[in-house]
Amino acid sequence: MTKPRVKVPKSATVGSIIKIKTLIRHNMENGLRKNKKTGKKIPRKLINNMTARFNGADLFRADIGGSISANPYLAFNAKIDVAGEFEFIWTEDGGKTWVAKKKIEIK
Amino acid sequence: MSRRSFSLGVTASVALFPVGISSSHAKSHYESLLEARTNGAPLQSGKISLTMPDLAENGSLVPFTIKVEGDAAHVKAIYVFAPLNPAPEVGQFYFTAESGEALVISRMRLGKPQDVVAVAEMKDGIFYTTKKHVKVTVGGCG
Predict the structure, then answer these.
(1) ipTM, 2 decimals?
(2) Is-contact B31 B111, C-beta < 8 A?
(3) Chain B interface includes A50 (CB < 8 A)
(4) Closest partner CB to B87 (pick from A61, A67, A79)
(5) What dihedral angle (degrees, nearest 10) is formed by the CA atoms of B32, B26, B129, A75?
(6) Looking at residues A67-82, what average pLDDT do you find?
(7) In chain B, what's the furthest Cα-to-Cα distance?
(8) What is the per-residue pLDDT for B7?
(9) Which of A66, A84, B22, B99 has its CA 20 to 30 A from that of B9?
(10) What HEC string does chain B produce?
(11) Stated pTM of the model
(12) Closest approach of chain A CAs to the CA of B134, in angstroms?
């Protein structure tokens, strides 16, 4: 049930800088928490990367780990020169990925 | 003691302390991680800003905002450290010219009060750093 959410303005003027907000629900288990009932450590399972692309080209990349809070929130900028589509990819330890896409128009 | 055994003793003690050791303490995990990112380059002040609360009520969720002045085209990466956390590297954030302005906003876990450190690596090889002391009431690392 970890469907990522992304907020991107629907349109922007040429040359403007927009802020993109991303959020993915994920426990970000750092391997230090213990199961309160069994006393056993909950195994480490982290989202280790979020990569943002625009019209296929890399825009922004975040390498993160156990010191990032659960439900990782990442906001960053993009300078808009043309209309197009953003793609956001989150990668978990072990290779599982989640993808979200958003379009933007020029006003 | 004979001259020969004296000079052997001197040679042995010189070999135990080779020239070049500069630190008087073992490197912390954080220091090793910082060095790996900066290759020992000098860290200048300026250009990078780190905004965090003075006091984090909940160490599991401490917001941070980092900006580097100027065109993002000049910025290679921002590195963030919480030196006293079990995982002192909080994240590495990489920018492109299409970023416009280098900015990252997120939330970190802090296990105890500490100076959070942010480092910007510029494309010309210069590093800038800033830090912010954050007090924590309830630690958030596990």
Answers:
(1) 0.96
(2) no
(3) no
(4) A67
(5) 40
(6) 98
(7) 74
(8) 55
(9) B22
(10) CCHHHHHHHHHHHHHHCCCCCCCCCCCCHHHHHHHHHHCCCCEECCCEEEECCCEECCCCCEEEEEEECCCHHHEEEEEEECCCCCCCEEEEEEECHHHCCEEEEEEECCCCCEEEEEEEEECCCCEEEEEEEEEECCCCCC
(11) 0.88
(12) 15
- Across the interface, do A65 and B87 touch by the CB < 8 Å criterion? yes
Chain B, nearest residue to A29 by Cα: B142
Give residue for tokens 């975040």: A62
Q: Over the stretch B44-66, which tens digit does the pLDDT of each residue have?
A: 999 999 999 999 999 999 999 99
Checking if the pLDDT of B10 tops 80, the result is no
- Residue B8 confidence (pLDDT) above 60: no
Q: How far is CA B40 from CA B31, B61, B118, in A?
A: 10, 31, 15
Question: pLDDT (tens digit, 9 = 90+) per residue, A7-46?
Answer: 999 999 999 999 999 999 999 999 999 999 999 999 999 9
Two tokens at B52? 């965090």
Q: Does A19 touch chain B (CB under 8 A)?
A: yes
